[in-house]
Structure formats: structure tokens, C-alpha cells
What does this fold into?
Amino acid sequence: MQATTSGRRKGRSIIVAFLAPTVLLYLVLFAYPSVESLRLSLYDWKGLNPDNARFVGLDNFAEAVQDRWVAVSLRNMALIIVAGGALLFPLALLFAAALLNDRIKAKALFRTLIFFPYILSGPGVGLLWTFILNPSFGALNGVLRLVGLGAWAQPWLGQPATALGAIIFVSIWWSLGFYMLYLVAGMQTIPTEILDAARVDGAHEGQLFFSITLPILRDFLAVAVVLWIIEGLKTFAVVFLLTQGGPANQTHVLTTYMMRMAFQTGGAPVLRLGYGTSLAVILLFFVVLAALLYFRLSREEAIEY
Amino acid sequence: MNTEPAAPARPAFGRSLAYTLIYLALIAWSGLSLFSLFWVLFSSFKTNRELFADVWALPASLQWDNYVSAWQTTHMDRFFLNSVAVSAAAVLLTAGLAAMSSYVLARFSFLGRRPILVALLAGLAIPLQLITIPLFLLFTRWRLINSLPALTLVYVAISLPFSVFVLTGFFRSLPRELEEVAVLDGANEYQIFWQVMLPLVRPGLFTVSIFNFLNIWNEYLLALMLLSKPENMTVPMGLYALRVTQGAAADWVSMIAGLVIVLTPTFLFFLVFQNRIAGGLTAGALKG
It folds into this structure.
């Protein structure tokens, strides 16, 4: 057996045999389309016929910078990330701490009920909430009328402000359980001796949380925030199902606006494949930035090159 | 960790107030989820007239017809068959390919190992939106639009980065002595993989497969681009189709019944694998 200094073995037929199918498939169906999209973003291409493609350099990006709806999309994504995060993380922290507290009962039930939305499909979540938010038969307006607040009942998805609020809330509802469990895992890394010692010294649970748990949890929280940023950047299904970017294009995010430009989801066919791809490249730019941050912050050095 | 503080720093009243507030938050949030599901469930058994008349009234009699019409009018049986076939094939194929390539990447030294690993892991950061348009053009050129086997291969390709990421970690953690003993026993390279190494990473393979299954079962963006015929659609697209047609159709209760049909298997899957899903989260979960 040939062992290298790094402890890995050397060349055998098994290397090619085991690696080739993965590499081939990945190259053709993932790597190539990724690189190809960078090239496509430099073309002005209307319709499906490749003959209509015209090289325009960075014109698509110049147009995107001035596109009013790109600006609206970026604003909405920022709102989802910032306003959503401001609501999501305090709740996730509170629930995570509660799930590790011995005085809280029925933890398994709470955990299940808070976590399950995370595993539902985007269209499932979107459709569920279009029913709940429906102006005429939806559960939300139904509750408001039931408790005498009928005046507050409104077409939630039909007005830009409430539609955006609904998108943010549904995004949180979908993901909260993941962040809760992630923070639970983080809190479990804290040695119980530290907490016990502080308890003996007379600290109450609130003090423990703010002076011990939270500081130790900082790295976990940083990673969780970056994951939320990436998720916020990629927001698609909730917007697509709830509003399709409407009313009046006010609730678009980059992903839905890109689909709208490249294909025709709602309204007349657009089929501007080059421009749509350039929007995807802009999205890639932001996601890669956040991903680099993630690998930077991720405490576990899981990748060893 | 349940030791009563020697000297409570706060009066008992303040503490129980804090716990009451925590309980209230927990109950409010989980109650919201529970009631949404409950409301959808009982609405799915109403008539359309009942649905609009009183949002909170229980149905006078159970309208099983809603389920029948949701199942029949939307090709739901086809959606399920397609989804099961595509997800099962993609998950198994991914597990096989990822196990083999991760084993080689983690335990052998060869030229190109590092670039291949970096290229595969870079896929973790690439949003699916980026590859939809080039894939759509590729599939159009190769006349693969509406081909479920081709879609399955795409799902394998997009599942590889996460699977390789997790499985290389598992393979790397196995002790070197295992291989040495197997070699002394006269096992060849392939036998070492099958009989010694693969059984040891079974938990990792299982966790990865559960996540891949959920991601693929729930995938809709690529399906939306690469499939167009109703008889080829998968379940999440079927839901999207419900959303599109619901504007025109007046049959809301059947739509709601359709949603219940679609959510039920996912929910059962979740109840069965709940602990493993929760446990695997720290290994890194991805949602498209």
C-alpha cells in the first residue's frame, strides 16, 4: 500500500472508475450551464432562435442598473432580509432557549409544530397562505371579522404594502424552525458546568442567557444570519405563489423579475433570455459574496483541501 | 442542568411572569401553524357556498367529492407517479455516485483531486436560477424538454455538491487501519469500498438521502422550465398549476382539497424522519 504523507492512497483504476460518472454529470448539467450563463449575460437575445443573439458586452448590466424594477426588486429583497431577520432571530433565539429549558413542558410538541413548515415545498407554503390570506374566504379576514375587527379585513395580497408584509411573514413562518434548531445545536455546545456554576452563584435564567449563552453563541448566530441572507437573496416561491410580483410589479424580487423577463410568467411573453440571465448573474454576485462570508465564519473547518 | 439557584435573584413572581410570556409566544406561534392546517383541512370538506358563507363554520356534511374532483381534474395521480419515480431514481443515483466519488476524493491522492473537489463544492453557492436559462436552451436543443429521465439527471447533478460535501467528511473520519487490515486480508480496492468503507458511512448516506429526497420532491423551478406537458408534471408544479387555474375556476374547495392531498405525504414523511431531519440540519441543509 502506498501511503502519502497526507495519509491518502495513490493511483488506482478505482479513482477514474468512481469519479468519472460524477464529474461528467456535474460538468454537463451543472458546471457548463453555470459558465454558459455568464456568457449569455453578454448577449442581447430575444426569442429562442440562437440567430437572434447579438453580443452587446455589458449593456445588459448597464440596463439593469437603470431598470426601475430591478431597484424595486433589490429594495424588496433587502426588506425581506433585514425586516424579516429582525423578527426571525429574536423569535428563533427565544424558542431555542425555551426548548433547552427544563421548566418548559411539551417541548417535543412545540418543536414539531414550529419546525414542520420548513420541510414543505415552496408552492405548498405559497398556496396554503394564498388561501389563508384570501380576501373573501381566507382565515385571516375570517378571524378579524369573528373578533369584531371586521374593519381591518382587507385584500392582503392586493396592496403593495400588505402584500410585502405577507411575503416577509410567510418567509419567516417557513424557515423559523430551521434557525431555531440550528441555534439549539449551538446552545448545546455550551458546557453545562459553566451554566451550573453561574446558577449556584445566584444568576437567574435571563442573566445566564444574556451574559453567557449569547456571547458564546455569537459564531453560530453569525453563520445563521449569513444563511438567512442567502435564503433571502434566493427568495422565489413565496413571491411567485403569493403575488407573482404584483400588484403593479411592486413586490418583485430579483428571481421573479428575472423569470418575468426571461420567460413570460404572467402577462405577455417577454423572452429576453440575455437580459434575464444578466439578472441571474447579478443574483449570483450577491450570493457568492454571502457564501464567502459563510465559509469564512463557519467555525467547523469541514472542508480540508 | 436542573439545579435550583441557591438564592433566587428575582422574586418568584417576576420569574413566573417571564415563563408565562415565553409560553404565550410558543403557543401563539405553534398555534398559528396548527390552526392554519386545521382550517385548511376542514375547509377542504366544505361546499363552495359554505366556504364563502362562514370562514369558521364546520362543514354541514363532509364533501369527499372535493377530493375526487381535485384528484381527477388535475392529473394528480400522474403528478404523484412522476414525483415518486423522479425523486426515487435521483436520490438512489445521487447516493451511489456521491458515495463513490466522495470515497475517492477523501481517501486517495491524485492529480486534479483538489480542483475537482473545489469545483463540486462551488456548486453549493450557485443559485438554481443561474442555470435555469442555459439548461432550458440545452434541453430545447437536445429535444429533452418533457423528458423525465433527463430531469432526473439534472436533479442528480444539483444534489451532488451537498452530498459530496457531507460524505467526504464521513469518509475522511474513518481510521486508516481499516484499509490496511482489509488489504492484508487480500481484499481488492472495490471490495474494500463495498465491504469495509461503505457500511461505515451508512448513517451519513441515509441523512444525505433524506435531505436530497426532500429537496428533489419539493423542487419546482427547474421542473417548471424543463417540463411543459401536464402529464409530465411533478407534484410541486401541480400545485403551481392549481394556483394558475384557480383564478379562472370557481371551484375553490377542490383546490384546497388538492393542497391537502399534496401536503399529506410530506407531512407523514416528516413525522417518520423528524429526528433524523433535525439531527442532520447541523450538517448543513439547503433549500432552493
Remarks:
- The longest helix of chain B spans residues 12-43.
- The CA atoms of residues 117 and 236 of chain B lie 32 Å apart.
- Chain B touches chain A through 116 residues (CB under 8 Å).
- Confidence is low (pLDDT under 50) at residues 1-9, 284-288 of chain B.
